[in-house]
Amino acid sequence: MDPLTLAVEQFHAALALALSDQAPAPQATRGYALEGFTPSEVLKTFRLFEYREDNRYPFILLSADFLEPESYLLEAFMQLAGDEAAIRQGLAEDGRIIAPTPLPEQRGVESLASFLSQLASAVAHELAGLVVVLAPARVLQAEAFAQFTAKLVARACYPELIFLVPKEVAPAGKAISAKVDRKALTEHLKQLKSPQNVGPARENAPQLTAAQRRELTRKTGKRITSKEAGQTYKRLLFEAGEAQSEGQFELAAKKFRMARTWCHMIDLKPEAVACTIAVGSSHFACGRTERAIEAFTTARKAAAALAEPRLVLQAELGLAATHLHRKEFPTARAAYERISASSDDLPPMKLESLRLRGECFLAENRPGDAVSVWSEALALAEALDPRLAALTCYSLIGERLQATQLLLGKPHLAAEAKDRTARIRAAIHAVPNQRVSQ
Length: 438
Known about the structure:
By secondary structure, the protein is mainly alpha-helical. The protein has helices at about 5-20, 40-50, 70-95, 110-125, 140-155, 180-190, 210-220, 225-245, 250-265, 270-285, 290-305, 310-325, 330-340, 345-365, 365-385, 385-390, 395-405, 410-430; strands at about 30-35, 60, 130-135, 160-165, 175-180.
């Protein structure tokens, strides 16, 4: 197992043990030490734990730079408004309702402690409690941060409120710790593609130099990751897919978020976008359409930034389907139009987007526009190689075009649509061993 994966798993095991045996506050404070972790990896390590199936604590991560107490408090209160709402929304989606916790007018340490205690009290009616992690990326005033932490912990006296703070400012006692040997990690990454690691040894096997590895990464745009890290990613995807196949869509969304966070940690950017799309699909399956739109929109933006057109199209499909489900037909239609304009090299997707764009027109009581779109789609199917046309939804398009022409009182055009569809089907039948599209 690579050093980063091993350190994260060791930390998670220790953290799970610590959270399972909490004493009343103020003793419910634990120090943590993540040596060799970057600030980004620290936050992702905690988020990965929060998404675990066995975790019963929402996490609040206060990660702003600690320049001085006033600015840290200001950043914390700005963040907490959204965190409190997100916690309530997440619980509500699982059928758990808690009362809102209003932000205080005063913005001092005492007010912060009181707010966090009240929120923990509300959460504890449904879950085990609340974990607050103080994880500033930078601390410019170490002594002031220690005083701030001590005061905050002392004022927050609710038993189900647990603080995780850097071990340097934690009460005396054993800290939850993990360490990444960056030198060992770098060496491990260098050896990932060594031929001695896979298959039988070869004396004459060519080896990539460090410069060649960098050039390969630059050309492919993909980071070479470890076998263990890849296996962790595959395991998370398998667990998410398994939950989804069993109808446990909330759990599936959680697992896909874990997989996405893991991708961020090991720098698998396209895979992280794919996980975000899967999160959106899980939200859609649960009926959480607002969350689905948020996930698909995030994925579309990230895919565009990575210049990954296939992922852009997948995100667009998710957005279009969600808006169509919400009967937001103009918005859905615009999304399908973007898909059809970008999928010339994917005829099945192009025809499906045209079919659904026509359905949007029909739902908007614009049958003439629907007919135009479906006629265009059928013309595209007619121009395809029959083997490729068989993979499209040409038959559905023909049926919808025929029915709509009859609705418009144009039986001769309906008959023409039927004939065109039949000719495509006959061409497909004429290809040896070619199955006919339904």
